[in-house]
Design goal:
Length: 475
């Protein structure tokens, strides 16, 4: 049986996979408080809170009726409390503890608590009962976990119950004839409860919404940093693989050359030997390209770059039709600092440059400068600039939008928040401003010591000697 020839296994098609682009699609283009917010609470927590209320209500009824001797409608009042206890037991039997409540389920659960407490107060004096202040409790809980619509619904339900209790209720239990409270006093209690319900609901919802926005924004920041680190790790792995495979591949190439030279032209294996040699050369070319990718471990000479080259590398993946990007080196003193190619700097700078390109009309200028104490990067675009009312708040997550080139509305805020968070971790300070004419300006400044190499090595080569160096990237 004849041995199979290499040409029998010749590949018919070669697939080329495009390089990954450091692009991150940020979640949450709608602010989190505008979405459902009950996904973070389990039924066990609400059930536990209701058990506390059931025990407290039963203890108060028994102590007041039997201990203090007030004539309460104890049977119907305890029946209302028992209904909550039975509901809790049924929920424990029907739901798994790890399951999260939906927005609708959490709203109905808290609505029941409002109605149950309202009925209990109806039996025990209405707003004249000192425990009427507890009507605020379910609304406060709702404001911390639910969306705006659910909080409005529960606030309206609580205010309706408070209003009904102000005019309709059983007499306040008392020894002898109950005191007749003036109508103006009852109205004052009603007004205090209504205003407290509205104020606490709005305040608690806004504070909880801000906390949710910060939480989601930091989660997006961690995702962006993790993705940038994975990209860098892939580059390091590719460089290491190229280094390790170089020696055996070189041996294969030498043997293939010997075979091509030794085999006669009419040999049936001459074609196979030539194919083997060409494919080994192709593999060596591919590995040579991979070996030039940056190494995050610092063993590659490209793991640290001059600051001007690093800034250009950070902005290289981002382009927009009709917008040119100019990288310029301003007049600087001293040798140009070398900067570690860290994921935080690469992603943060790339994000800010992408933001400027997105909103520019025709041109973006990135200027790099340094001296013996600091390193500065200035990003300027000729777009409409930052909205003046948002300028003091830039760097906070989930701000409103400004108009990008082409007139379309562009959401901003989360990307700037991520960039600022990552860059501040490297020691940078960011300042945002609008130019007197149209355009936005972002200035970054690092202490030079925070960016230079650890062992004090600096980039060799000539200094700028006061001559600005400019490079233009065409659109």
């Amino acid at each position: 049986m004849a041995l199979p020839r290499i040409s029998d296994f010749r590949p018919r098609r070669c697939y080329h996979y495009p390089a990954m682009t450091p692009f991150f699609a940020y979640p949450g283009t709608v602010a989190p408080e505008d979405e459902g917010g009950a996904a973070g609470i389990s039924p066990r927590r609400l059930i536990s809170m209701r058990w506390v209320a059931v025990i407290g209500q039963a203890a108060a009824l028994i102590a007041v009726h039997f201990g203090l001797g007030f004539d309460l409608p104890i049977a119907p009042a305890l029946a209302v409390v028992a209904a909550s206890a039975m509901l809790n037991v049924s929920l424990l039997l029907r739901r798994r503890a790890q399951r999260r409540l939906s927005e609708r389920d959490a709203t109905f659960t808290l609505a029941y608590d409002v109605l149950q407490l309202g009925l209990l107060l109806f039996l025990t004096g209405g707003l004249q009962n000192p425990f009427a202040i507890l009507m605020i409790a379910p609304v406060t809980v709702a404001a911390t976990i639910l969306s705006r619509g659910s909080v409005v619904f529960l606030s309206a339900l609580a205010i309706s119950a408070i209003t009904l209790l102000a005019v309709e209720h059983w007499p306040l239990p008392w020894r002898g004839a109950p005191p007749a409270l003036p109508a103006i006093y009852v109205f004052g209690i009603w007004a205090a409860l209504v205003l407290s319900t509205n104020f606490i609901a709005v305040y608690a919802w806004s504070v909880a919404g801000e906390a949710r926005r910060i939480r989601d924004a930091f989660a997006a920041t961690q995702l962006a940093l993790a993705r940038e680190q994975r990209i860098s790790a892939v580059g390091a792995l590719a460089a290491a693989a190229a280094h390790e495979l170089g020696s055996p591949l070189g041996t294969i190439a030498v043997i293939a050359k010997e075979l091509v030279r030794e085999l006669p032209a009419d040999s049936p294996y001459a074609e196979d030997a030539a194919l083997l040699l060409s494919q080994s050369e192709r593999c060596r070319t591919i590995l040579a390209e991979l070996s030039h990718r940056p190494d995050t471990e610092g063993s590659s000479p490209f793991s640290r770059l001059p600051i001007s080259a690093l800034v250009e590398a950070a902005g290289a993946p981002y382009r927009a039709k009709g917008v040119r990007v100019i990288y310029a080196t301003a007049t600087s003193t001293g040798e140009e600092p070398e900067v570690a190619r860290s994921p935080e700097i690469m992603h943060g700078l790339g994000n800010l440059i992408q933001n400027a390109i997105q909103f520019a009309r025709r041109e973006v200028t990135v200027t790099i400068a340094w001296d013996k104490d600091a390193v500065t990067v200035e990003i300027v675009d000729d777009g409409p600039g930052f909205p003046p009312h948002l300028l003091p708040r830039l760097g906070q997550p989930y701000l409103s939008s400004r108009q990008g080139h082409g007139g379309e509305a562009q959401h901003m805020g989360l990307g700037i928040f991520i960039a600022q968070t990552l860059l501040e971790r490297t020691g940078a300070r960011l300042d945002f401003a609008n130019l007197p004419e149209d355009g936005a300006q972002i200035a970054l400044q690092w202490p030079r010591a925070a960016l230079e190499t650890r062992d004090g090595r600096r980039r060799g080569g000539p200094e700028s000697n006061g001559r600005p160096l400019t490079q233009e990237v065409p659109a």
